[in-house]
Amino acid sequence: MKLFFASDLHGCLPATEKVLAEYRKSGAETLVILGDVLNHGPRNPVPDGYNPPAVSELLNQYADQIIAVRGNCDSEVDQMLLSFPMMMDYAWVMLPSGQRLFLTHGHLYNSNKRPPLKQGDVIVHGHTHIPVAELDNGQFIFNPGSITFPRDGYAASYGLLEDNQLSVVTFDGEVLAQTSLS
80-106: per-residue pLDDT in tens? Predict the structure, then answer.
């Protein structure tokens, strides 16, 4: 199983094009989008290349490969443009190992406010725009960073789950954070 994670696209067409090119190159079967898909949000500037209708058109081509959750900037109006469901606050993915991935945006649940998780489970969230891949008190925390508005001096990044390893990677191929689920 290979999963590709993207978060906080915020309606930026050039960033979405880059992330979809990397997704295709990665060979992943599923694109997990962790919210803030089309809207830039009131606290962010309007990104260069802001084009929510074009972003939705592009993403809709991958609708059968996407698992998405709602971010704090997402609304029912956004859902009207997208042909895949994205209004859920969270989703679960069961790994072949029996570990569970709890997928959420990060504004309701996050590394500091976790849902009930078992040892070895993973909370996967965006929202902070800061990459993380670590084990914390027996549970894994994974944040792929942001492709549109990276923070704290980090480069734009995405996430991968491959061969039981979680990695946050820049578009230049630099690994920003990594942890093994074993």
Answer: 999 999 999 999 999 999 999 999 999
Query: Where do the structural domains in the chain lie, given as residue ranges?
Result: 3-180
Q: How far apart are CA 92 and CA 156, in angstroms?
A: 25
Contact 32, 68 (CB under 8 A): yes
CB of 176 within 8 A of CB of 170?
yes
Q: Report the 10 Å Cβ neighbour count for 1.
A: 14
Q: What's this model's pTM, rounded to 2 decimal places? A: 0.96
Q: How far apart are CA 137 and CA 134, in angstroms?
A: 10
Domain spanning 3-180: CATH 3.60.21.10 = yes
3-class state of residue 37 by DSSP: coil
Instruction: Calculate what percentage of the chain has a pLDDT beyond 90.
Output: 95
Q: What are the residues facing 40 on neighbouring strands?
A: none
